[in-house]
Amino acid sequence: MNPEPEQAESKVAPKAPRRRAGVPVWRTGKPDAVLAAAVDTARTAIEGIAKASEIGEHLAARTEGDRVVTHLFESRLPGYIGWQWYAVLTRNSRSKVITVNELGLLPSEESILAPEWVPWAERVRPEDAQEQDTENAEETPEEGAAGESEAGEPGETAADVESASDDETESDADAESGSLERD
User: Fold this and answer.
1) Separation CA 75–CA 103 (nearest Å)
2) What stretch of H or E contains 101?
3) Is the whole-model pTM more than 0.70?
């Protein structure tokens, strides 16, 4: 019958969802009415960097500050499902002239993002090192077999072929020096 535990539970604020890297955090507030109504201007600006078929429906107009609004559009770009096209619009105070400030593509909470980067040294697992050792062991016998095939005749090794080629180069050098002495 102690009302205090119930009150303590109600005072505990729910945890905020974990913020994903690369996904923007938006300010809250009422967007500028002129800029918020400029959906067609934002769509036309995005059509300057993307095909009209790659731009979906208008999702939201979010405030960035005084007289700065970001319009978000669904992305229909293959490979970017869940991403959003954005156009940041701004205007001067007491002016009706709208300026396009920035355009691009942003991930949303539903978009697929690359995993967080992990340095190579931390990514290598013991199994990876074992596979590399196995590959190195397989390459070693192949190199020996390649040396035997260069020998040419059965029973002849690569060392025999090498010494024979050295003998040929010495006899060629002797022949050349003899021909020079005759001249």
Assistant:
1) 13
2) strand 99-106
3) no
